[in-house]
Write a structure and sequence with these properties.
- Helix 3 packs across helix 4, helix 4 runs antiparallel to helix 5 (93-105) and helix 6 packs antiparallel against helix 7 (130-146).
- The longest helix has 21 residues, at 152-172.
- By secondary structure, the chain is mostly helical.
- Helices cover 65% and strands 0% of the residues.
- It has a single domain, classed as Tetratricopeptide repeat domain (Serine Threonine Protein Phosphatase 5, Tetratricopeptide repeat).
- It has helices at 6-13, 20-32, 36-54, 65-82, 93-105, 114-125, 130-146, 152-172, 179-182, 188-193.
Length: 201
């Protein structure tokens, strides 16, 4: 019998048996593309589950690594698609962080394929918390070190992104590109930073 979270994992990561590089190549646009039709698809397929996760109604998913990862996707990744450019895009972050740390403490990330571990660690990379940023960088560094030589470049890219997020939090203690969405005033330094290429991830 199929687990209830499997359709989400299949949609996010594709067919089982692909290498990390193959998964990333086939899903890069979905993960990082910011396209309206993808956001609409996420909303149609999984919007109800996102609402359940935000209402803390999926605790039964959180008893094993696959369900834990799927819940993290529902709290961290999918709200950024379904509620893009609104405060609700970040509504799951406060729930995702302790859940991610709980699973990491249990070693659940080590039971997942490397490419799937990326999305557990991204929860910490999204945090406006320097301690969690340091942890994210260390996790991505280990992931890159453990990768097969042919895929080390792929994971080095994820590490680079984590380091860039870490640097922003070290400098500002928050992500300036969220200020307008969240109704926060930007400092003069933040406003100047937002004019730089790559400042908005």
């Amino acid at each position: 019998m199929q687990q209830p979270w499997q359709p989400l994992l299949d949609w996010w990561f594709g067919a089982p048996g692909m290498s990390a590089a193959e998964v990333a190549a086939s899903r890069r646009t979905l993960w990082f593309g910011k396209q309206d039709h993808q956001d609409d698809q996420a909303r149609a397929l999984f919007g109800g589950l996102v609402e359940q996760a935000l209402a803390e109604q999926l605790q039964d998913w959180q008893a094993e690594p696959d369900g834990w990862l799927a819940t993290l996707l529902l709290l961290d990744q999918l709200p950024r698609m379904i509620y893009r450019d609104s405060p609700r895009a970040f509504a799951g972050d406060s729930l995702a962080r302790p859940l991610a740390l709980h699973g990491l403490a249990l070693g659940w990330d080590q039971q997942l394929p490397a490419i799937q571990r990326v999305f557990a660690y991204l929860v910490l990379e999204h945090a406006e918390d320097l301690t969690l940023q340091h942890q994210a960088v260390q996790l991505f560094h280990t992931l890159q070190e453990q990768a097969a030589p042919s895929e080390r470049g792929l994971f080095a890219g994820y590490l680079d992104y984590a380091e860039r997020h870490q640097q922003v939090i070290a400098r500002f203690a928050r992500f300036p590109h969220r200020n307008q969405i969240l109704g926060r005033s930007s400092s003069a330094e933040e406003s100047a930073f937002l004019l730089e290429p790559g400042s908005r991830f």
